[in-house]
Amino acid sequence: MKLPGRSIALYVLLVCLLPGCSFFRDKSSGAYFEDDGPPVGGPNPASVANAVPRPEPLSRIGNKSYEVYGVTYVPIRKVSVGYAQAGEASWYGKKFHGRKTSNGDVYDMYGMTAAHKTLPLPTYLQVRNLDNGREVVVRVNDRGPFLGGRILDLSYMAAQKLGVVATGTAQVRIEVIDGPVSAKAPVQSVALDSPEAVFFLQAGSFRLATNAHRLKADLAGAGVTGIRVVTVQIGQNLYHRVQVGPIHGSAAVSTQRGIVINLTGIEPKVVKECC
Length: 275
Description:
about 280 residues; alpha+beta; Barwin-like endoglucanases; Alpha-Beta Plaits; 14 strands
């Protein structure tokens, strides 16, 4: 079943204030708005890895209050690891492929991403399909869905891996496994002309040890060597920091930092040996 597009398009033009907002979509009973839906072909879902949590700042756009269908939504700017919700999830596909999401990313239907109405952008979620037990990790970079009380809109690939494409919707449980770096403990950076002789490059800092070890494995898979995970306590919280080193001398630091950036795209901080 396809829903009439002319009146919907006019209404959307009047009320949609978010770039990439996902409320155009309705997949109850597997139906789609207009020409949205699954692509022809595409990569094998088994070959697509879960999203890997990385240290990222709060997005400059997509985190302010907005209004859709007369309802005002106020995004959360900080969220605790372990925050969870249960409810209905849908998905969106080819119609939005290549368009900008609410945080300014370009939507890739083959990526492991999702849309949520209020979680900080970006946030990393573990999503479990309660109907079949399948699980994935996605990066939230968009707003929506705004239909029927749904809590999450999955990318086509995430929906494929969860077994949601054919049904259109599914009951899921989502849990925050990492959020923007603004919600994490500060890290002390060191100037390269510091008299300290030994340095490390810090690629990430996480509340969950599993996320730290996931990033460590990702770095190793990219060819980075000398990786360690260090656990530090800040107040009542433990942080698991992924570091590369030890590195001796400022010249070696610059060289190794360039290697990490070229291999992974991550721009690590330079930190003292102690932290």
